[in-house]
Amino acid sequence: MSSFGSVAWSSVGKKVITGLTGFMLIGFVAVHLLGNLTLFIGPHAFNGYAHFLETAVHGWLIYAFEVGLIVIFAFHVVAAVTVAVADKMAARKQGYKYARNAGGRSRKTLASRSMIISGAVLAFFVIAHIFLFKFADHEQTAEGVKNLYKTVVGTFQNSVGFTAFTVVAMVLLGMHLRHGFWSAFQSLGWTNDRWLPILTRAALVISIVLAIGFILLPIWLYLNGDPNAMPGGH
Amino acid sequence: MSDSSAKSGMTIHLKIWRQARSAAQGRFVDYTVSGIQQEMSLLEMLDILNEDLVRKGEEAIEFDSDCREGICGTCGMVVSGVAHGKHAGTTTCEIRMRQYKDGDTITIEPFRAGPFPIIKDLVVGREAFDRIQRKGGFVSTNVGSAPDGNAILVSKLAADDAMDAATCIGCGACVAACPNASASLFVSAKISQLAWLPQGGPERGRRALAMIAQMDAEGFGDCSNHGECEAVCPKQISIQNIAKMRREYVKAAWTGADKSRSSGGD
Ligand code: SF4
Ligand code: FES
Questions:
Q1: Measured between CB atoms, does A3 come within 8 Å of chain B?
Q2: Which fold has domain A10-95+105-224?
Q3: Which residues of B touch A191 (CB under 8 A)?
Q4: Least reliable range by pLDDT among A163-172, B211-220, B239-248, B257-266
Q5: How far is B59 from chain A (nearest CA, A)?
Q6: How much is the average pLDDT of B41-65?
Q7: Residue A12: its chain B contacts at CB < 8 A?
Q8: Which of A189, B78, B253, B259 makes a 20 to 30 Å CA pair with A121?
Q9: Interface probe, candidates B222, B228, B254, B261, chain A, greatest A C-beta count within 10 A
Q10: Which is nearest to B108 in space by CA: B13, B226, B40?
Q11: DSSP assignments along A79-109, one per residue
Q12: Domain definitions of chain B by residue range
């Protein structure tokens, strides 16, 4: 009766796709932050970390990850955009003249209402930082390793604009996860009355921790970073 | 009561949506009613207004109501921006005028959603809910003598969850309040009410797939987990039912529960 496609692309199927891919992206973001913290340690640590990622399993690891991430992003975006934009506009063509938030037990927040906007800005940031960091002309360090540290720190040092944009994007990341984290559990059906309040509080903590981590990096690099710091001189 | 309004009553200003029929262009019309007692309900105030209008030879404002005690789910309007008004856990017919002060302005709009077409003024068609129900919101039983009530044991926790879900009166406020006009709370209440009980077991997979397919076909929006539905629901149906509905759906899709239909099985 129902094909796999029609089930996967039903209203519930789309939520499951958004939730599953959301979980994967949250996991990626957390690991990405941990890796980026090597920027605080210094050029040697950061370049070594980047070098490891690019050469692991003869360079296949990073390719596999990149392909996987692109697929995950694509599913997340397409499912979420159809939920938020297309179906919503079709379902209520004539809006309310006077509409107020119900308050009380509602979980509708600025974060939940702006998922599509925070998501769009984040997508733009992801693409921008890939172009600025990954596809830039890199120098080599004395050890013959790509000096990604210099590229990253130099980018922030030379551009207040990009530093500010990064901070804004990371605030939006926090908002996105504020709703997205517990919402992913709910979308997959992994909640009940006992767990829901715990998960919504966990979402607040996780979104704040990740956002602060990602906000401190560009600010610190802008203020203190030295693109020409010598490897080993940390 | 020392309040002078207790005798003379309050004067209330109203902005009410008037629409002659589905296809017509609607608009807000201002009315003022006086002599409103605090003990009156919002609907009784509308009754008084309608008597006035009819006396003046104008057309009465159409609105739905039946039990007027919060149990049938017939009434339903967006009162000053919130479906069923701002008080949690109550229906439109349970709104009392003591919630308002003399001189207040109240706006009254119909529930708005594509699958709930406006029939006239504040009356909307909610047959979409009936069509969803017909796809599986029931249990099939054999005729014959009634089975022993204690033959099938149900745990207290499951019975409580099922009973909570079963209190849904099908009013449609969840759809009206949802920013996406999703019917997830209603459909989830109907699906999980039966999924929690052994009696609903044999048909649970087929029920979940068929009811959700019908919900989508009716044109309701998708859920974004805002939880606005739970806040306006007069029966305070929890969104844990939506989570339960999703589990039911994934399980049914995974195990191919819909196949039983073509073979004529249970
Ligand atoms: S879930 Fe609540 S708001 Fe929705 S139809 Fe049932 S009683 Fe009304
Ligand atoms: S008229 Fe029956 S619930 Fe309001």
A1: no
A2: 3 helical TM bundles of succinate and fumarate reductases (1.20.1300)
A3: 240, 243
A4: B257-266
A5: 23
A6: 96
A7: 212, 245-246, 249-250
A8: A189
A9: B222
A10: B13
A11: HHHIIIIIHHHHH-SS--SS-----TT----
A12: 3-119, 126-259
Looking up tokens 């099922």 gives B162
Q: Which structure tokens are listed for B155?
A: 């745990």
The pLDDT of residue B224 is above 70 = yes
Closest-approaching ligand to the CA atom of B189: 1
- What are the angstrom distances between the C-alpha of A84 and each of A34, A65, A138, A183, B95? 31, 28, 40, 14, 33
State which amino acid sits at residue A161: G
Query: CB neighbours (10 Å) of residue A213?
Result: 17
Query: Under an 8 A CB cutoff, do A192 and B240 touch?
Result: yes
Structure tokens at B188: 């989830």
State yes or no: pLDDT of B137 exceeds 50.
yes
Atom of ligand 2 nearest to the CA of B65: 1
A contacts of B78 (beta carbons < 8 Å) = 96, 98-99
Cα A5 from chain centroid (whole Å): 27
